[in-house]
Design a protein that fits this description.
The complex is a heterotrimer of chains A (281), B (356) and C (273). Chain A is mostly helical and 281 residues long. Chain A has one domain. In chain A, helix 3 packs across helix 10, helix 6 crosses helix 7 and helix 7 runs parallel beside helix 11. Helix content of chain B is 32%, strand content 28%. Chain B has a six-stranded mixed beta sheet with strand order 6-7-8-3-9-10, with helices on both faces. A four-stranded antiparallel beta sheet of chain B has the order 2-1-4-5. Chain C has one domain. The longest helix of chain C has 35 residues. Classes of the chains: A mainly alpha (281), B alpha/beta (356), C mainly alpha (273). Chains in contact: A-B, A-C, B-C. Chains A and C meet through helix 2 and helix 8 of A and helix 2 and helix 8 of C. The complex binds adenosine-5'-diphosphate and magnesium ion (MG). Adenosine-5'-diphosphate sits at the interface of chains B and C.
Chain lengths: 281, 356, 273
């Protein structure tokens, strides 16, 4: 796998992400989505809990949902980039070209994913900060975040580790897109929906009925959420952070391996079927 | 000494009787009228004049060719006549209605198709798409299906009508587009490069279809193309257009006849460097020339329009003088390409190169 | 004149047919389309249920239903003309005598019909799983629902003309609009009225979006047993109707204006060669 191809692809990805007449407008448009969804999920909790009799609002719950919604938006934003690159590339013929040059499809997809990781990290950090201020002032409450150099570094570390799983998921989806002639655009959205339910983004997965709860419990995305909350919310400990992170690494490696295998399989299959450059809507 | 073949001018049949529409009578109703039509576009590099004072009259039942290199202004003209674009100056009328003031009236009696588009809804069958398009004209469903079947029959599309649009090949998508273009029993049809990018057999069947539409149903067809063979095969008259101006307008046969002498074709090697052929254009008696490269044989083929046998020798001499070998040469009855060369001095290829 | 020979109706019906057919021709689309709205509303229902007021769970399910339509308005209505223009369909509309309003209305009805199965599935699944408490006056619910959809799709028509004018970044604008509008208009929670945590100014601004009024009215009729004759509900319905008419009118006008502008500037169709 060539590093140079990957670096070039990161640049293509950046170009694609910031293909804007005005970069600031572009960045803002990209940020309002995650910001709004974080505020929406938090408000659902606020409205529900404050109208409960007796009111059951807890600031730490709000922090829990806020972090979960933001990081969920992060994963959802970049894990579908390989699919995007393929599906869109089939239209513009970029992808068959990349594909023709040997051993460059994987670096290309990884490069595009990494480029998107960087931009979505920026948008998510901005939405986290903004929603923190908006919600604290609108709800008149102290959201018990823990913000110091260590906690922020730990959050970034967790995000980096989660690339394993997100890229793995991205490759799994793109494996489908590679030979699919329909639904390739829709599948990532569908899976993103599943991820919201199964990754402990908004509520503990133990609320799900068995065996769904058990499956959700071992997903690296779930461990990533848990580790991040340990890092960012008061009361978290470095010990539990690292135990969750360790599980996230293990699970991430498994998902990534699955992603690689699926992609290789799909690549061969697509070549056999001759659908790599087949355009469909 | 000139090659013997030089005098052995090949005779190309002037006309292909039976293929040509005979409705080109001067007393037929005028369906398209264009007076001093001008269209400018604003671009980053300043103003582009796409049409520079065009005058035309086309009659009922005519297939009227608009022939010119890419960028000549053909599409612009078609867009104005089909109410997609307003003129900057001048007048254009279709079936007696003004394109500027009465677009709705024109839209009811025309249709158009562009070879570059081939638009349709991917997940709907070809028949479904065609039915949909027919409804834009308010055609009752039964009547619509009758027309779809009839037109599809002519184009050999029948057995593909139930396929989803996306599953059709380029040629069949284009056939669907051409059925659509006649679905509303239009009086005037604008076709912009209808056979571009299609294989020869498909192009032939499409031309036959267009011819039939004009001949049997008396429709006026304006056909923009940069394919001379197409014009030769089906157009009653052709306007040769370059840089937004009409340079000549007549029947293909008359245009070719106007050149007088057969043109000179030379095959030379090695392939000339850019610019090295320029002196030919300046020779006495040379009206213009165009060249193309035959990569496979390592030759360049030069077509020179000359006004008589005398100039032929000086062309050959000039080429030899610049160090190239004339592999073969002969005289050939002029084609529409040479008509263009005679008018402009250079061929379509060079024209499109200049523009790029 | 017989109705079925009316060209306006023919065009509208044909456009509806094409839109609905694309979905019904591929039944799996229904399953695929439920995904995101269902899982989102499932998650938010869990949030209400686990940490809040159980009687609000219906809000999140209703939100999943309505977000399906909102998504359809954005992705299939708003950007449709822009897309049609890219593939050359728009110029076929323009050069035909078909009235653009018929195409807009047909597109909307087709979109509603095409989205209805997946939206209904979200409602049915949500009801089966969570049994949210419902206290409904059904004739009111149905009228409010119809009126809400009408004004929502009228908004889609207005957007479609906007996107046609500023086409280049339409997809990104769609992406950017989806969440904020569903936040402000209170798809999953009351963003206006007594339960809203938002400042009054925000509530007033939100009420300018038809979806906000529609969601509020739907919650009132579906979960709080309100019917016609409740002053506030009636006012909301009146406002919805007025907004719908204004949007419909404005978008037709805007499209006509754009057509003329496009003919002047040469931008009605994408340039090719
Ligand atoms: N919408 C437009 N905006 C700017 N320039 C245009 C536009 N349409 C055509 N042109 C320019 O007008 C000239 C004629 O174009 P066109 O009519 O498309 O030529 P043809 O169809 O003969 O190839 C070209 O120089 C082209 O670049
Ligand atoms: Mg053209």
């Amino acid at each position: 796998m060539s590093l140079r191809a990957m670096v070039a692809s990161i640049r293509v990805g950046w170009y694609r992400e910031f293909n804007w007449t005005n970069p600031l407008t572009g960045f803002s448009l990209r940020t309002v989505g995650p910001l709004a969804s974080v505020i929406a999920a938090s408000t659902v909790y606020y409205v529900g809990s404050t109208n409960n009799v007796p009111p059951s609002f807890e600031p730490s719950r709000l922090a829990y949902i806020l972090i979960g919604a933001a990081l969920y938006a992060h994963v959802a934003a970049y894990s579908w980039v390989p699919t995007l690159a393929i599906a869109e590339g089939k239209w513009t013929y970029v992808f068959p070209q990349v594909y023709m040059s040997p051993h460059s499809s994987l670096p290309y997809l990884i490069g595009r994913t990494l480029a998107s990781f960087v931009t979505s990290t920026m948008t998510v950090i901005v939405s986290l900060v903004l929603s923190f201020y908006v919600l604290s002032s609108v709800f008149h409450t102290n959201i018990p975040f823990m913000v110091n150099p260590l906690s922020v570094s730990l959050l970034f570390l967790a995000m980096l580790v989660n690339i394993l799983a997100a890229l793995g998921l991205g490759l799994l989806l793109s494996a489908y897109a590679l030979f699919a002639t329909k639904f390739e655009w829709a599948l990532p959205t569908y899976v993103a929906g599943l991820l919201m339910v199964f990754s402990e983004a908004l509520f503990p997965v133990s609320f799900l009925p068995w065996p769904l709860s058990a499956i959700a419990n071992v997903l690296p995305f779930t461990e990533f959420m848990r580790a991040s909350r340990q890092a960012m919310i008061q009361g978290g400990t470095v010990y539990s952070y690292f135990s969750y992170l360790g599980l996230a690494v293990l699970g991430g490696i498994v998902v990534l391996a699955l992603g690689f295998l699926a992609f290789r399989y799909a690549e061969n299959r697509a070549r056999r079927l001759g659908v790599i450059d087949k355009k469909t809507a | 000494m000139l090659d013997q073949r030089l005098n052995d001018a090949r005779k190309v049949p002037e006309d292909q009787p039976g293929l040509r529409n005979v409705m080109n009578r001067v007393d037929a109703e005028i369906t398209v009228q264009v007076d001093g039509l001008r269209r400018e576009f604003d671009s980053k590099e300043g103003k582009i004049v796409a049409l520079d004072g065009i005058n035309l009259q086309v009659r009922k039942g005519e297939i009227f060719g608009v022939l010119g290199p890419n960028g000549a202004g053909k599409t612009t003209m078609i867009r104005i006549l089909s109410t997609l674009l307003l003129p900057t100056a001048g007048k254009a009328g279709v079936m007696g209605f003004d394109v500027e003031k009465e677009p709705e009236k024109i839209r009811a009696v025309i249709n158009m198709a562009s070879g570059a588009e081939r638009a349709g809804y991917d997940f709907i069958s070809a028949r479904g798409n065609l039915w949909f398009f027919s409804q834009l004209y308010g055609i009752p469903t039964e009547e619509a299906h009758r027309r779809i079947n009839e037109l599809s029959d002519m184009l050999g599309l029948q057995s593909y009508l139930d396929r989803k649009f996306y599953a059709l090949s380029t040629g069949y998508k284009q056939r669907v587009t051409l059925v659509r273009a006649f679905i509303n029993d239009p009086k005037v049809v604008f076709l912009d490069e209808p056979t571009i990018g299609l294989d020869v057999m498909t192009a032939l069947s499409i031309r036959e279809y267009i011819l039939k539409q004009a001949k049997e149903y008396g429709r006026t067809i304006i056909l923009a193309t940069h394919n001379m063979a197409e014009v030769d095969a089906i157009c009653n008259r052709v306007a040769i257009i370059d840089k937004g101006k009409i340079l000549a307008c007549d029947t293909p046969a008359a245009l070719k006849r106007s050149l007088g002498a057969p043109s000179l074709i030379l095959e030379v090697s090695p392939i000339p460097t850019p610019g090295s052929l320029e002196p030919i254009g300046k020779l006495e008696g040379v009206k213009g020339f165009t060249s193309s490269v035959d990569e496979e044989r390592g030759l360049s083929r030069i077509q020179v329009v000359i006004d008589g046998d005398g100039s032929a020798q000086s062309v050959v001499d000039s080429i030899r003088k610049s160090g190239m070998t004339v592999v073969s040469n002969w005289r050939q009855q002029a084609t529409l390409e040479e008509v263009f060369v005679a008018l402009v001095g250079r061929g379509f290829r060079e024209r499109e190169h200049e523009a790029a | 004149m017989k109705l079925h020979s009316n060209p306006w109706l023919r065009t509208a019906y044909a456009r509806l047919w094409v839109r609905a057919k694309s979905i019904y021709g591929e039944p799996l689309w229904v399953a695929v389309n439920i995904g995101f709205p269902f899982f989102t509303s499932f998650s938010l229902t869990m949030v209400y249920r686990a940490y809040g007021l159980n009687s609000f769970t219906g809000f999140a399910i209703l939100g999943g239903v309505m977000i399906s339509f909102w998504g359809n308005v954005l992705w299939s209505m708003a950007s449709q003309f822009n897309w049609d223009k890219q593939v050359g369909l728009f110029e076929i509309y323009i050069t035909s005598p078909a009235p653009i309003s018929a195409i807009l209305v047909g597109m909307s009805l087709g979109g509603i019909l095409g989205t209805a199965p997946s939206a209904a599935m979200v409602a049915i699944l949500g009801w089966l799983i969570f049994h949210p408490p419902i206290n409904a006056i059904w004739p009111a619910v149905i009228s409010v629902f119809a009126l809400t959809l009408a004004s929502l799709y009228a908004m889609g028509m207005a957007l479609s003309s906007l996107y046609l004018a500023y086409g280049r970044e339409a997809d990104s604008v769609n992406e950017a609009l989806h969440e904020p509008v569903s936040l402000i208009s209170g798809v999953y929670f009351p963003s206006t009225g007594g339960f809203s945590p938002f400042p009054l100014a925000v509530q007033a601004g939100a009420s300018l979006i038809p979806l906000t009024l529609g969601m509020d009215a739907l919650r009132r009729t579906l979960f709080f047993g309100q019917g016609f004759g409740e002053l506030y509900l009636d006012l909301e319905l009146l406002a919805l109707a007025i907004m719908g008419v204004i949007l419909l009118f404005a978008s037709s006008k805007a499209l006509m204006f754009l057509e003329n502008k496009g003919r002047r500037t040469g931008t009605i169709a994408v340039r090719q060669r």
